Amino acid sequence: MKPEEFAAALAEELDALPLRRTAPMKRVRRKYSRRLSGESGVFVWEAARRILETGQHRWIAYELILDHPEAFRSLDRDTLEHLGSGIDSSSSVDSFARTLSGPAWRDGLISSDTIRAWARSPDRWWRRAALVSTVALNVESRGGKGDFDKTLGICEILLEDRDDMVVKALSWALRELIAHDPARVEAFVRAHEDVLAPRVKREVRNKLDTGLKNP
To answer: In this structure, what DSSP letter does residue 97 have?
Structure first.
């Protein structure tokens, strides 16, 4: 089977699902990932590219790459920016950053310079991607161990950003650090009290005090 045939078969099965919910779609994706286990990284890349070109199932294409060690290890800044081309919503950004760019950063495939460049982008979605990429550094279920220096370095770049999509992501990034050292997160919020958006201060303090973003 050629990559384009593989991509077409996967898309056809996804489109045939009676309800497009995450759980059944993931089951289909895992079945197709097993079929890719003996294929090269190049094959996986081409199949993922074909899926992305359809404008649908973007997160499925990302998960195919993540689940294939050779394809994932080939990620670098250029390939990630190509894969992220067209991100234009919180869902597309978050699937890209949580599935690919964050894990790639965590595993040393890209440097902090790349994430800092995104944080300074004029494009709100790339700024959000920079913040959401920190999630992989800090969520244990995704292999994160709590990286304050990298996470707070990105947060500091975007402290004064008032784009709603960025503000929400900044709150998220800080809240994910609480499990590792709540006192340090609290100190960070206090130190930047005058410039942080009210939403960030409210949600992070709620999480510190109650364990919930919005109790």
So the answer is: I
Assigned architecture for domain 89-215: Alpha Horseshoe (1.25)
CA dist 102 → 1, 80, 129 (Å)? 31, 11, 9
Report how far residue 130's alpha carbon sits from residue 141's, in angstroms, rounded to the nearest whole number.
20
Residue keyed to tokens 């394809």 = 71
Q: What is the pLDDT of residues 143-186, one digit of tens each?
A: 888 999 999 999 999 999 999 999 999 999 999 999 999 999 99
Q: Which of 147, 75, 146 is nearest to 114 (CA)?
A: 75
User: CA-to-CA distance for 121 and 127, rounded, in angstroms?
Assistant: 6
Interhelix angle 124-132/148-157, nearest 10 degrees: 160
pLDDT at 141: 81
State how far the Cα of 75 lies from the Cα of 105, in Å rounded to an integer.
Answer: 10
Q: Report the distance separating Cα 165 and Cα 91, nearest Å.
A: 11
End-to-end CA distance of the chain: 51
Q: CB–CB of 184/145 below 8 Å?
A: no
CATH 1.25.10.90 residue ranges in the chain? 89-215
Query: Model-level pTM?
Result: 0.95
CB 200 within 8 A of CB 156: no
Residue type, position 11, single letter: A
Q: Give the residues of the chain that fall short of pLDDT 50.
A: none
59 contact partners, CB below 8 Å, separation of at least 6: 91, 92, 95, 99
